[in-house]
Amino acid sequence: MAKQRSETAKAFAAEDDAKELGFAAGPRPSMASSSMITRAAAPSTALLGLSHIGNIDLIYKYKDYPSIQLHTFAPAVRVRPGGMLLFGYSFGGKLTLNLVYDLNGFKDGIIEAWWKDLLGGCDELLVGKPLARL
């Protein structure tokens, strides 16, 4: 990449010098050379979708309706085959994490083990309860 930049800079400098001296500039060198480095396409598959819906308490004022006791919020989500989505929200002063995944998209026990470790990390980081170390 540095070599290509050097060649391009020299070509533009020569063109500028020729204009200053009153010479007609020749054709510009092609920028599409085989020495150019092309970036590989980004992967089109995400391993995990993440979403934080936000603080539902700011939207629904449950304290304004004391005769109605809401204890949870149930958003509807869907995932593509083989996908999974981790989303969270806070409601009623509580943080809720939800994991939605394609049951047939993963080997048995993989998601369960990952979820256990995620919850353990939340306990350690958010609650202050240390994880049991192996």
Question: How would you sum up this structure, described in words?
Answer:
- By secondary structure, the chain is an alpha+beta fold.
- Helices cover 28% and strands 17% of the residues.
- It is built from 2 helices and 3 strands; from the N terminus they run αβββα.
- A 3-stranded mixed beta sheet has the order 1-2-3, with no helix packed on it.
- The longest helix is centred in the N-terminal third of the chain and has 20 residues, at 2-21.
Largest sheet: 3 strands, mixed
Note the overall shape. elongated
Overall mean pLDDT stands at 79
Main sheet strand line-up: 1-2-3
Number of H/I helices? 2
Radius of gyration: 29 Å
Identify the notable features of this structure and list them briefly.
28% helix; alpha+beta; three-stranded mixed sheet; 3 strands; 134 residues
Question: How would you summarize this macromolecular structure in one to three sentences?
Answer:
The protein is α+β, with helices and mostly antiparallel strands and 134 residues long.
Question: Topology of this protein?
Answer:
Elements: H1 2-21, E1 49-55, E2 84-91, E3 94-101, H2 110-127
